Amino acid sequence: NQSELVSSMVEKIQTVLASKMPLDQEEEYLVGLDRRIEKMMELMDIQVKDVRIIGIHGVGGVGKTTLAKAIYNKCHHKFQASSFIENVREVYKSKGPMELQKQLIQDFSHDKHKINENISSKAVGMIKQKASKKTVLLVLDDVDDKNQLDALAGKRDWFHPGSRIIVTTRQAEILKFAGLQDDAVYMVEELDGEESLQLFKYHAFGDQEPQEKYTKLSKEVVSISNGLPLVVQVFGSLFKTAETPEECDELLKDLRSRRQVSEVHEKLRICYDSLKWNERYIFLDIACLLVGKSSEDAIYMWDGDNLLPHLAIRSLQNRSLIKINKGKFEMHDQIRDMGREIVMTENPSHPEKRSRLWCEEDVVKALTKLQ
């Protein structure tokens, strides 16, 4: 049937084109990225037809995922297949390896149809079969366990010559397990003072040059951020919400009290503390339960509880605490982990007494205690 053949060809072309679409980075204001991309491209050296694994290492919030996305967008069309697996640590912990393996196989197959069958016994074989026949670009984002690497990119001989695998992680030992030498690892450094100031001014003042009295404030805030792009962005967005000079002074005073704090979560906590009660409630719901979930469904639920969700969500977005992309909530993993820590501290040893549960192990403990 000619019409069916045409429809099938159109669907196949659309699927292949969709697999070649760049990742969404349009909302991000990217500072200091060009020099990092240049260094990564040297490590990638895609003209050489070997199988190469490149590590991106650095502390949380320093911009590893941002760099990996930029590299993916720059290079993915030069490979016969590509896959960007986000939040490996979180998905592996909550759903196991098969969910990640299915996505990888689907991406390498240029198939828009989800794999619904249980493939646990044959997943590795399917990955090897797909990856060995064409050059692939694979990005594994936020890996924290060697078992995750085993499940998704166990050995170099799985892959066709010319393939590149990028692994982002906070843990250097993960890259050593993968057999990487120091010259195959890019250590993401913090922003320098000028880059941090540029990023802060953008998020705090937009395209306007700040008044002279705010220039000194900006430099002090930047010094507290330790050059972490995530912290600079969130601090900038927080100061943008200040409506009077007095509010700016109060925020700066609070930040000064946290100057000696090294933990990213503690630095970000000031933004949570500045929220109204309903904004905190919705923020914790998203952090614990709703990342990657439908914003429309959640708004319907919160609206029924009179939590003023539209106003709250706009406030969280203005503070750079959440994003909504294609109708689903997104949140940086450091911000998500901060929210979960807040809930954990409600009662560290008794999960049944916490306001929210997201970990299967804690749910089982809570149900056992309540029986």
From TrEMBL:
Residues 278-344 form the Disease resistance protein Roq1-like winged-helix domain. It comes from the Eukaryota. Residues 41-205 form the NB-ARC domain. GO terms for biological process: defense response. Coiled coil: none annotated. SUPFAM superfamilies: P-loop containing nucleoside triphosphate hydrolases (SSF52540), Winged helix' DNA-binding domain (SSF46785). Keywords: Leucine-rich repeat. GO terms for molecular function: ADP binding. The keyword Hydrolase does not apply. PANTHER family: DISEASE RESISTANCE PROTEIN (TIR-NBS-LRR CLASS)-RELATED, LEUCINE-RICH REPEAT-CONTAINING PROTEIN. This is Uncharacterized protein.
